[in-house]
Specification:
Blueprint: E1 4-5, E2 11-12, H1 20-30, E3 32-36, H2 41-53, E4 58-63, E5 66-71, H3 72-77, H4 80-96, E6 100-106, H5 107-112, H6 120-128, H7 131-141, E7 148-149, E8 152-156, E9 161-165, E10 174-181, E11 194-197, E12 203-207, E13 213-218, E14 223-225, E15 236-244
Antiparallel strand pairs: 1-2, 3-13, 4-5, 4-6, 6-8, 6-9, 7-15, 8-15, 9-14, 10-13, 10-15, 11-12, 11-14
Length: 246
């Protein structure tokens, strides 16, 4: 993989030991794969710094009023009663079906709008949309039609979750979901697992959000993110999105 220089002078590149042929074989057989040490160590550390210290988060949710994004100031202005009512509305929606709550920052939307271009994360967005990386995505997924990747930074704090869904949306042309994980020192019992239920509700498999790991998942595949425990020792940081065709 060629190196992609960033505006800050740092470099983003895959680790030298990443084997596209091995990844491709696993993905072809199982429709998902967990790849450890995906980026060069310094690249991964720099992305974690950007996520944990430099990202202007908002709060993404789906409740009885539908899909919404609240800026941090709006959320902080809610009194305890209103905040509890919002949490209860999210929970009721999750009980009935699809719902989520987590912090996010849309890289693609802001980049296209010419906003926040000074952030290091915008260099990451350029990196995953560079010709060498898109060629890597086509090789490991076996999908030659992949033309670009959308992207959002996500942060799951205590109580956050994403209920079961399969990512199949008409007209979105999604071929594979990806999750770059940048969470150091995460424990399995803290939750936040990318989990895959079968038709009986049992879990086939679950990926821990290990630091500097990439998860690839074929679309459609039923999956969820388990709720982060109240005793979790920190946040679950990642950059997620889909490889898509035009």
């Amino acid at each position: 993989m060629d190196k992609a220089a960033t505006a800050s002078g740092d470099e983003l590149r895959l680790d030298d030991n990443v084997d596209p042929s091995l990844i491709s074989n696993i993905f072809k057989r199982f429709g998902r794969v967990h790849i450890t040490r995906i980026l060069a160590p310094q690249s991964a550390k720099r992305v974690f710094t950007a996520l944990s210290r430099e990202t202007p988060w908002s709060f993404a949710l789906r409740d009885e009023a539908g899909d919404r994004n609240l800026d941090v100031s709006s959320l902080e202005e809610l009194d305890p009663v209103a905040r509890a009512a919002l949490a209860a509305s999210i929970d009721r929606t999750a009980t009935a079906g699809f719902a989520y709550r987590y912090s996010n920052f849309r890289l693609d939307d802001h980049y296209i709008a010419g906003m926040h271009r000074e952030l290091f994360l915008m260099s990451f967005y350029e990196f995953i949309n560079s010709p060498p990386f898109l060629a890597f995505a086509r090789a490991v997924t076996g999908v030659p039609e992949i033309a670009y990747a959308d992207a959002q930074a996500t942060l799951y704090r205590k109580g956050d979750f994403l209920t079961a869904h399969d990512d199949a949306v008409e007209g979105k042309n999604r071929h594979a979901a990806y999750v770059f994980n940048f969470t150091p020192g995460w424990r399995t019992d803290w939750g936040g697992l990318l989990a895959f239920p079968d038709e009986h509700g049992h879990l086939h498999e679950a990926f821990v959000p290990a630091f500097n790991a990439l998860n690839l998942v074929r679309v459609p595949t039923l999956h969820l993110v388990t709720q982060v425990a109240s005793y979790a020792g920190g946040g679950r940081y990642s950059i997620t999105g889909w490889f898509r065709s035009r």
